[in-house]
Amino acid sequence: MPAPSRADNRALVCALFTLHKVGMSVPPSAKSDQRGYSVRGLANWILDYADELGLPITNMALNKLLYFAYEESLARSGVLITNAKIEAWEHGPVFREVYQAFKDNGDRPIRSRASFFSPATMQVETSTVSISPADASVLKTVLAPLMPLSAASLRHRSHIEGGAWHRVWWYQGHANPGMEITPDQILSSRSNAR
């Protein structure tokens, strides 16, 4: 087999970088089914759904809505809707890729859509997902009552004492690299709350 060319190496590096940027580096929970939807695509889907409902969504609200959809999908059916890493930040759970895509909006409603660099086309493209009807139904059921709430209200809900964010943010152990909120922490905090 011939050695890979520079173009082959470049394509591989671009593909690996893209996978890393969409959060594919997070190992799955052994207890979970995976959908592996792009977190940017999910964010855009939520924004499109909010537009259908006539509701403005800020970056902070979007991150919380995405987190609650992730949490509920995992708790209800053991399904990870995305492989993206969730981090505990001061204002609650954050998907770094989503935050970065919309940080220029500040606390203003988002009008744009998240994008990514495609190694296949060598262009920046808008992130999309094809969500199954069953997953879309679950997402809409979870999101519909939350979407009209303010970002501050969603933040408050994500800060519930004993919840996954709270347990990671106020971690008393030796170290918690990356302040990651894992699927197992979400499930554990939900089962302890019952």
Polypeptide structure, described:
It is a single chain. The protein has 194 residues and is mainly alpha-helical. The protein has one domain (6-193). The protein contains 8 helices and 7 strands. The strands form 3 sheets. A 3-stranded antiparallel sheet has the order 4-3-7. Helix 2 (39-53) packs across helix 3, helix 3 packs across helix 5 and helix 3 crosses helix 6. The longest helix has 19 residues, at 59-77. The termini are far apart. Residues 1-32 have low confidence and may be disordered.
Structural class: mainly alpha
What is the percentage of strand-forming residues? 5-15%
What oligomeric arrangement do these chains adopt?
single chain
Detail the poorly predicted runs. Answer: 1-32
Structural domains: how many: 1
Biggest sheet: strands, sense, closure? Answer: 3 strands, antiparallel
Shape type:
globular
Mean pLDDT: 84
Query: Based on DSSP secondary structure assignment, what is the total number of beta strands?
Result: 7
- End-to-end separation in angstroms reads 58 Å
How much helicity do the residues have?
40-55%
List the strand order in the largest sheet: 4-3-7
As a whole number of angstroms, the C-alpha radius of gyration is 17 Å
- Reading the helices and strands in chain order gives HEHHEEEHEEHHHEH
Q: Tell me the number of helical segments per DSSP (H or I, 4 or more residues long).
A: 8
Give the tags.
single chain; 194 residues; mainly alpha; 3-stranded antiparallel β-sheet; two-stranded parallel sheet; 7 strands; globular; disordered N terminus
